[in-house]
Design a protein that fits this description.
The chain is mostly helical. The chain folds into two domains: 37 residues, no CATH class; 52 residues, no CATH class. 54% of the residues lie in helices and 10% in strands. Strands 1-2 form a two-stranded antiparallel ribbon. A hairpin with a 5-residue loop joins strand 1 and strand 2. The longest helix has 13 residues. The chain starts with a helix and ends with a strand.
Length: 104
């Protein structure tokens, strides 16, 4: 993986697309463009943008990623084994315990 300095150099000197900020550093759009050109597939970026527009989804992703690794792995394994995610339901009891279950 390239260093942030290498990406910045590419943004500063790449293909005449540089729009430096007032302090001489490339602006955010230029940096994002350089990152996308180097690392991203355009279809994947479009898909991520589409999903990021779903209300609350980014918060859910952040919360899941903040779980301890064992908990995150368990949730991921449960969801991966569910043949139909529309049949997965949740229940929270009075003690704050969350139960994931699959209705048949």
């Amino acid at each position: 993986m390239r260093s942030s300095q290498a990406i910045r150099r590419q943004a500063e000197h790449g293909a005449g697309r540089v729009r430096p900020a007032q302090d001489g550093a490339p602006d955010l759009n230029t940096i994002i463009h350089a990152l996308m050109m180097e690392f991203a597939e355009s279809a994947r970026v479009l898909e991520l943008y589409y999903w990021s527009q779903e209300p609350g989804l980014v918060d859910i992703i952040r919360a899941v990623m903040a779980l301890p690794k064992q908990s995150r792995t368990s949730v991921q394994a449960f969801l991966a084994r569910a043949p139909d995610l529309k049949r997965v339901h949740t229940k929270v009891d009075d003690f704050g315990h969350l139960t994931l279950f699959r209705r048949r």
